[in-house]
Amino acid sequence: MTRAISLHDVSKAYTRDARVVDRLSLDIAPGEFLVLLGPSGCGKSTVLRMIAGLEDIDEGRLFLDGEYGNDLPPSERDMAMVFQNFALYPSMTSRDNIGFPLRIEAPHADPAPRVDATARMLGIEDLLDRFPGQLSGGERQRVAMGRAIARHPSAFLMDEPLSNLDAKLRNHLRAEIARLTRELGVTTVYVTHDQAEAMSLGDRVAVLRGGVLQQVGSPRAVYSLPENVFVAAFIGTPRINLLRGLVRAPLDGAMTISLGKQFLRLPEPLSLDHQLLRVQQGREVIVGLRSEAVRIAGPAAARTGEVALTGLVEHLEFQGHEVLVHFNTGSRPALVPELEAPRPAPDRPARRRREGGTVLERLRERAGALRAGPVVTPDAPARPDPASAFASASAEPRVPGDFIVRTTPDIRLRHGMQVPLLVDLAHLFVFDQYGRRICPSPDRLPDLEE
Questions:
Q1: 3-state helix, strand, coil in the chain (%, to 5)
Q2: Tell me: the pLDDT tens digits for 196-224?
Q3: CB 60 within 8 A of CB 10
């Protein structure tokens, strides 16, 4: 049996100043594998614990198979949780750890058949008589997963189960988790900050930041059409190129996006998405280009929809199967402090220290204020003239290069070389100064055949 999980405007706050989860609504279909993805402290584990019943829901409603579940105790929710730290009993063997919840549920039943079947499924038959202290990290995680699987629950809740393992073992267990959940067909909610896990495991990915749901969709849709700068910057390796631009849309000339020393000339006739940029005339925007949207080639090799730039090689990252080239194009990077989300900071009146407040209460208030996060705007200093947006770029600290391009290892480049680039404008993202996507149009649906 599997179950549907629905969250409607769910909120959670540990202090009066800030919500850890803020009005989150999410529907999880029976048998679906949903990944909650976001940076540390974004509230994803809190959402998981509220579904499990380990945290109370302050506001909003939880429905399990259509029935109100806010007040249902954890023992009656028929869910199994896999924790980040394994949570095995050190004085019990693997067999006893896996069978422990079965003995609690049915004290007079023999758990051995289900324990043995689970061990065969996970390939840990030879580990059943060992104690946790005699197991490696990967073996402990398999035992922890076995304890959850043996219960035959209606939902799996996994809280970063692979974060304590080395990279090679993570990749192996990631494939194991995908295989097992597919075979069992059980609703799974998986929490991680690792986008590689999210993109490879999930039927859908829900991206959170600061307790607010930013976007939910298939891995391909979230990657190809991010709804805001935060999602665009958080999803994808290497990180998307984000540059400050200024839209120029004269009535008697071609539309361009100035990047400082160079510009992107939008081909005519303008596509529908590019026509929508006319309303941004004279405004600063954020231009987003993924590394695969740019290739190293001269203007003579340009295809339809490609425009030319040039870049100065500043750094090379050899990856074996590919090379990541960091270019200086004279552009000004759109620095996104803490991967800002399109949510304005709440207006809070100045607070006075209460006369009778304890030190602990004051520390809690301060922790709540810090959790709220910064004001969500691109790194745009105040300036009277929009044209001066690029003037101070050289005064700001930056990483090597402002543009990263993925290329094959057979192309010979060296530091300081001037290289021609071609930008495919079909994969151009444009965001407004608050981080919201304006191109492609927010109403456009991703074409998965592209």
A1: 30, 25, 45
A2: 899 999 999 999 998 999 999 999 999 99
A3: yes
Per-residue pLDDT reduced to its tens digit, 149-174? 898 899 999 999 888 777 777 888 88
Within 8 A by CB and 6+ apart from 442, the residues are 227, 436
Structure tokens at 189: 């909610």
Closest to 339 measured CA to CA, from 185, 258, 232, 199: 232
Domains contained in the chain, CATH given: 5-227 (3.40.50.300), 230-340+397-439 (2.40.50.140)
* Residue indicated by tokens 């592209």: 450
Does the pLDDT at position 257 exceed 70? yes
- Under DSSP, the state recorded for 355 is T
Structure tokens at 432: 């407004």
**Type of residue at 398:** R
Name the β-bridge partners of 325.
316, 405
Q: Which residue has the tokens 């061990």?
A: 119
Q: Which two tokens stand for residue 36?
A: 């909650």
- Asked if 427 and 293 count as a contact pair (C-beta separation under 8 A), the reply is yes
Q: Which two tokens stand for residue 184?
A: 């069992």
Residue 126 has pLDDT above 80, yes or no: yes
The phi, psi pair for 333, rounded to 5°, reads -60, 145
Contact indicator for 80, 148 with CB cutoff of 8 Å = yes
Task: Indicate the Cα dihedral angle 36, 42, 45, 48, nearest 10°.
Answer: -60
